[in-house]
Amino acid sequence: MRKLYPQAVSTLCAVCLVLPIMAQASERRAWIVYFSDQSSSFSDENLAVIHGAADYHQTVCPTESITVVAGTDTVGEPDDNMRRSQDYATAVADKLVADGVPRTLVHLTALGESQQVVATGDNVAEPLNRRAEIKIGEDGEWGVCDGDVR
Asked: Quick one: which of 107, 120, 35 has its CA closest to 71?
């Protein structure tokens, strides 16, 4: 048993050294804009989130695409919620472009009420479902691009 102990300690220490590196490499930056009601207006906090995403894009990976994925809660008709999520995505994309992100790199996805963060029944006002997620990179990963070095 004593002969295995140094090997176990050595293996454990190797794992201890690797885990922080793996955690750092897999770190994701998420930019999520939440809407307080069924309008696509922005709070100061929302604007800061959008500015942060645009700044990250411009300084770390300016040639990567950005996808804005927006969803809604279940208040109202599904068709209305699909349009509302499109409005959310468009409003966020417009702010990204105003902050210097080329329009040609910004793509939109409207989910309506189809992919809720918090599952609810019909006609439930859930603020966490009224959101637009900003994803950077070809594969839509959170804040990950070829130029991303941490």
From this structure: 35
Residues 72 and 111: their CA atoms lie apart, in Å, by 8
SS3 115: coil
CATH class of domain segment(s) 29-136: alpha beta
State pTM to two decimals.
Answer: 0.76
Measured in degrees and rounded to the nearest 5, phi and psi for residue 125 equal -80, 100
- Mean pLDDT value across residues 55-59: 94
The rounded distance, in Å, linking the Cα atoms of 80 and 35 is 16
Q: Are the C-beta atoms of 70 and 132 separated by less than 8 Å?
A: yes
Going from the C-alpha of 31 to that of each of 12, 46, 86, 123, 133, the distances in angstroms are 35, 9, 17, 26, 6
